[in-house]
Amino acid sequence: MGKEQTKDLLKFLKPFGDDTTDLVMWLRGFAWDLCPKANELIYDNYNAVAFGWSPTDKVGHSICSIAVGRSSKNVHFGFYWGSEISDPDKILLGAGNQYRYILVTDRKKFPKTYIKKLVREAYTNSLAKVKDKKQILHGQTIVKSISAKKRPEKGGAKKAGA
Asked: pTM of the predicted model, to two decimals?
């Protein structure tokens, strides 16, 4: 299971088109390679498709994530606890108490080396948050939620059954 399990995610990404899906799946491979023992948690929500990696099945232990906004179509590569990791080049966006991210528009412009360093730090931070080590799971893909209602695409009517 794990990295090879793409059926549900590809179904959730279908409304975003091939270019966005290709970029998101490339980012997914990048993240899985950095977190091979973590678990992928997938959320097909009303406002975004989001998925991230966690040593447990809890979002609160997340290391990093990818999200695609339903109306904006923006692709984020983010850190659930981004406010707690270093960002010496100050490339992460977000001013809230927790989440930090970068907008990803092109795989050639994605700062792989820099993000790898942040993912390693986020992984260590995530493991420190796991109080009960029995919660740790390895390499699973877990669909956590599927919203019945989806926010309609910009400039178009909501599709039946979407």
From this structure: 0.85
Instruction: Please report the pLDDT score of residue 2 as a whole number.
Output: 67
Confidence category of residue 156, pLDDT binned at 50, 70, 90: very low
Band of the pLDDT at 144, cuts 50, 70, 90? confident
Q: If we measure between CA atoms, which residue out of 87, 97, 89 comes closest to residue 122?
A: 87
> Does residue 78 contact residue 99 with C-beta atoms inside 8 Å?
yes
- The β-bridge partners of 54 are 39
Does the pLDDT at position 69 exceed 50?
Answer: yes
For residue 157, pLDDT over 60 is answered with no
Residue 117 carries which DSSP code? H
- Taking the CA of residue 36 as centre, how many other CA atoms within 13 Å lie in the half-sphere pointing to its CB? 1
71 contacts 151 by C-beta, under 8 angstroms? yes
Q: Nearest Cα to 123, choosing from 54, 56, 28, 43?
A: 54
DSSP β-ladder status, 75-79 and 100-103: antiparallel
Please list, in sequence order, all residues whose beta carbon lies within 8 angstroms of the beta carbon of residue 132, skipping any fewer than 6 positions away. none
Residue in the structure block whose two tokens are 């700062």 = 111
